[in-house]
Amino acid sequence: MIPNQLPVFIAVVKNGNFSEAARQLGVSSAAVSKAVAQLEKNLGLRLFHRTTHSLTLTEDGHDLFRRTGQLVDQLEDQIRLSTDKQKAPHGRLKVNLPDSFGRMVVLPLIPSFIEKYPDIEIDLRFDDRIGDLVKEGADVGIGVMLNQDSRLIAREFYKVQPILVANRCYVDKYGMPKTPSELVEHNCIAYRSSTTGRKKTWNFRVDGELLQIEPEGNLIVNNLSAAVKAVEMGVGIAAVSIGHAKNYIEQGCFYRILREYEADPIPVMIYYSSRNYLPAKTRLFIDHMLDHFHDEREINMDDMIHEI
Question: Which residues form the HTH lysR-type domain (predicted)?
Answer without folding.
Answer: 1-58
